[in-house]
Amino acid sequence: MLDIFVGFFSFHQQLFLFVFTLSKRFLQYILLTSLREQQSVFSCSITKSLYSALKKTDFSVNILKFL
């Protein structure tokens, strides 16, 4: 019974890591494409700072700490 629980937990942990890594990459892609399309210098700098913050943040490490 314990083996089933450990396997179930391990599968869900890997699924969460995959989803959060994928969402991080997706957000980086959206911010990067919006950065290319921006005309205003102010909004461009905000998008750059958001992109660099997302680049430095690792969701998978945060999720591992949470679990």
For the structure shown, list the relevant keywords:
67 residues, mainly alpha, 3 helices, 90% helix, 0% strand, rod-shaped
- How widely separated are the two ends? 21 Å
Number of domains: 1
Biggest sheet overview: none
Q: Give the rounded overall mean pLDDT.
A: 67
Give the SSE order as H and E letters.
HHH
Q: Shape, please? A: rod-shaped
Q: Which runs of at least 5 residues are low in confidence (pLDDT < 50)? A: none
- Helical run tally: 3
Rg, rounded, reads 17 Å
Structure description:
The chain has one domain. Helix content is 90%, strand content 0%. The chain has helices at residues 2-37, 41-56, 59-66.
List the helices and strands and how they pair.
Blueprint: H1 2-37, H2 41-56, H3 59-66
Short structural summary:
This protein is mostly helical. 90% of the residues lie in helices and 0% in strands.
